[in-house]
Structure formats: C-alpha cells, structure tokens
Amino acid sequence: MGRYILLLLYIGLACGQTTTIAVFDLENNGLNDSEVKILNDRLQSELVKAGGYTVVERKKIDKVFEEQNFQMSGCVEECIIEIGMLLGAQQIVYGSVGLIGNIYTISAKLVNATSGEIIRSSDFDNEGSINNLLKEGMSRIAAELTGILFVGPTSEIVFNAKSAAKKAHRRDLYILAGGGSCLVAPIGIPLSLLFDTIGTTYTTLDTNEAGYIELTSVEQQNIYINAYKKEERNLRRNSIHGTQAFCIVLIMLLSFATES
Prior knowledge:
By secondary structure, the protein is α/β, with parallel strands linked by helices. The protein has 2 domains: about 20-145, ABC-type transport auxiliary lipoprotein component (Rossmann fold); about 160-260, no CATH class. It is built from 10 helices and 6 strands. It has helices at about 1-15, 35-50, 60-65, 75-85, 130-145, 155-170, 170-185, 190-200, 210-215, 220-260, and strands at about 20-25, 25-30, 55, 90-100, 105-110, 120-125. Strands 1, 2, 3, 4, 5 and 6 form a 6-stranded mixed beta sheet that branches.
C-alpha cells in the first residue's frame, strides 16, 4: 500500500511540472552579431514571460557545446537536438534571422527534443527597419511557438495578467488541498488530479482590473484571459504538488525510520 501511495504521489508531481526548454542562438544571415545577441536574449525573455516553461541557462548550453567539441555555427538540426537531449530539455527552440533586400526576417521552430517532431513554427517579416523585430517580432514568435493568441505586442498584456493572477492566488488554500490529498490516500492524488482538470472552470479573473479594462479589443482581452488562466493554473498546481512533494519526503523518512 505504501508503494502505491508513493506512486500516486509521484504521478501527481509529474503532472505539475513545467516544460524544460533550451533556446539556441538564431542563425545569423547578414546582421551584426550584437544585434542577433539582443534578439536572442529577447526571445528567451518572451518565452519565460509566456509561462509554463523552465528555460535552460545560456551558460549551460555553452558548457555542453564545449564539452562535446561542437561549434554553434556549424551545428545543424540533428546536432541541436542531440545537445538539447544532453541538457535534459524536453523541447528546443532554434531558427534563423536575416536580411533579404530591405526585409528583415525571423523564422523559428519549437521541436520535441526526444522525437525531433516539429511542434510549432513561426515567421516574422518587417520591411525597412530592424526595430520591429525587437519591439514586436520576438513577442509574436514566442506567442506563436507557445500557442498564445497574438494581436500586437503581448509582453505588457501578459505581464499584467500574470501579475493579477499572482495577486489573487490563494496559496494557503491550495497548500491545504495538497496536504489533504495526502491524508486521504490512496484516493487523494487522483482526486487532486481531477480537481486540477475541473478547477480550470473556476477562475478568480476580475474583469474590473485596470490591466483588463484598458484593453481596446476583444483579441487583446482574450490574450489577457488566456495568460491569466494559464498562470492561475500553474500557481495552483505548484502549490498543490509542492505540498505533495513534502508528503513524499515525509512518508519516505517515516518508512525508513520504521524499517530500521
């Protein structure tokens, strides 16, 4: 019975984890290296803002390249996927940025690091100026790769939505729910997973929040709502499953103490 409880707790924890993602430098086709570095940093930042992802640090990627004696400039798709797997990433992002005539263009792909399957892809073109690649292009790329509805720059809208969700989150309530699921084993964990699914129909979203009221279109409001609910669910899952993790440690310690 003890092993069964531990297995259920483990399943609950697994369902609460974020996706680990490795973001590789965009291939440079005609821009200054400093410009591409700024665009790379912005893409990584926008993916973090999207929520639900744990982004691998740049220095860890560089370290693996160094250990494997690979060069980023000559690393093709198979090489990038191999590096992603070595980093423990579940998904990877790679692509290119360049200039054709007077059109600046970015292409990026989100790929399953295990199977190599392309999950989503995104492109952005801007004529005449590189400025919009930074101001709008990277947020659009990140939104499309993560499946968030995009209409115009999303950074501020998503930030406001996530901030409002964090403010409204009842952490103590969901910690209590996580603890309660441990106390009613073996049905507690399945019930918590069921709550995790059904709970998405209940939201603390307040359409009177300043960040929502100032939005001028239905599309922007949908971006806010989607980002709010995604952050809300992540906060709930982290609170519940974080408490369940504590339960696992406690049960294992008690089990070891009993056996000895």
